[in-house]
Amino acid sequence: SFTVASMPGSRLHAERLSLHSEARGRGPERFSGKRSEVRNITGGRGMAGKRGETALVTGASSGIGEAFARRLAADGYDLVVVARREELLRELADELSGAHGAAVEVEPADLSVEADVARVAQRIREDGSLAMLVNNAGFSTAEKFVDADLESQLRMAHVHNLAALSLTHAALQGMIARGRGSVINVSSIAGLVPAPYNAVYDATKGFLVLFSEGLHQELRGTGVRVQALCPGYTHTGFHAAIGVERNIPEGFWLNPEEVVDASLADLLKERFSGTESVEIIWADALQFDFRGPCRKWGRKIKVVANLPYEISSPLIFRLLKERDCLSLLVLMVQLEVARRMVAPPGTKDYGPLAIWSRLYADVRIAFRVKPASFIPPPQVQSAVVKFEFLPQTRVQVGDEKTLEEVIRSTFTYRRKTLGKALQLAGFPASRIKTARESLGISPMARGETLDLEEFCALARALEGREKP
Asked: The pTM is what?
């Protein structure tokens, strides 16, 4: 997991690597148990994230830069991708154009070369409509400064600092004129905790932090946000190239996608920081305590979501368990999942999801969403499903654990008769027969033929009975 917490001074950081930093103007500040920090610095309004807005990402051919490009394309941005290796950029551009319908412009450039930096900066000025700039390009040599090739150290400073200054200066003119935009300077936790064998790298990353903080002050109120993103150890070719991965325990490592999530989530938080009616919570929905906001606000909450297929059923079951704090669910899911929520007994889609949903709520498919509604169109259809929770269960339940076991066993062994399936789950055959006969259920019945009322009655008849 990747847990974050807000800190004074718009600092957001993730658990794992402990450090102590001197917060400018505030005295010592403790960042305990952290492995990454985002210093989000904002001047006002937010990121639109829609097709027609363009983001430029440097160092986009791999690692964090590639992860930014992928995420921003998925979020609706068109892209300008910059790196030295043109073949990798073109492969990425083709993939993102096909997957997300993004317009992706390839700008091969070596940002240690002044002429290349000038060319990319001019490209930004001529367009004047850049919505986001991600200064990510960088490298390290991991050696004593006195033994290092001076030219390589100067190139590092050029890429990390001079290129970032030039591109930021070019981007800000258009952003300020439009009253919105975001600049993300990818620094490093090393810029906060200098160490031997990386003196120039650490210094250049520290420069990005201070540059970002100062620029924040200058841009306050303009609608332009500046963020210093300070990741810890991240699985990229960058660390592999200098041989760091073999020396650091796995528990300290991030994935590039986690770093990008932290960055964009914090920008979104800052977008709504002055709006009392909006709170941005960066969390895993499968782990999140939905009762927390309910307790905080003193009322039930509504959940509105567009759910990825792979977490649809697990998250819906979780929400059903926390139904006491929910008044409404409005969920967009794949059509096949929606059908399973409302399926009647005896159909191929009927199962635990339909039974539990009907027990706790009035559920209906509000409308279908055609593939043409998305860019690019997916291969599947979607639907919006509405859950309106009942004040109490639709049918008397009794012991809910017994009901869970009855439903689970009958659909785990759905090809077997009801009696056989329950026996395999450990219920005594004699008890099953007595319960079945008292309810008038056929000995040949299978779980998929029972309705909600019959399941609840069967569970009540079986509850309290000891298993062999």
From this structure: 0.72
Total Cβ atoms within 10 A of residue 106: 21
pLDDT in tens, 335-372: 999 999 999 999 999 999 999 999 999 999 999 999 98
3-state secondary structure of 168: helix
Q: Nearest CA to 204 among 216, 187, 184?
A: 187
206 and 344, same domain (yes or no)? no
Question: pLDDT grade, residue 36 (50/70/90)?
Answer: very low
Query: Quick check: is 35 in a domain?
Result: yes
Per the CB < 8 A criterion, the answer to whether 231 and 254 are in contact is: yes
pLDDT in tens, 273-292: 888 888 888 888 999 999 99
pLDDT band at 37 (very low <50, low <70, confident <90, very high): very low
Structure tokens at 44: 């006002």
Q: Which residue among 339, 361, 389 closes a domain?
A: 389
Q: In what order do the strands lie in the sheet with 54-58?
A: 4-7, 11-15, 34-41, 224-230, 181-186, 130-135, 54-58, 78-83, 104-108
Residue 324: what pLDDT?
93
Count of the separate structural domains present in the chain: 3
Give the integer Cα–Cα distance in Å for 145 and 199: 7
**Cβ(59)–Cβ(138) below 8 Å:** yes
**Packing angle of the helix pair 309-321, 352-360 (nearest 10 deg):** 40
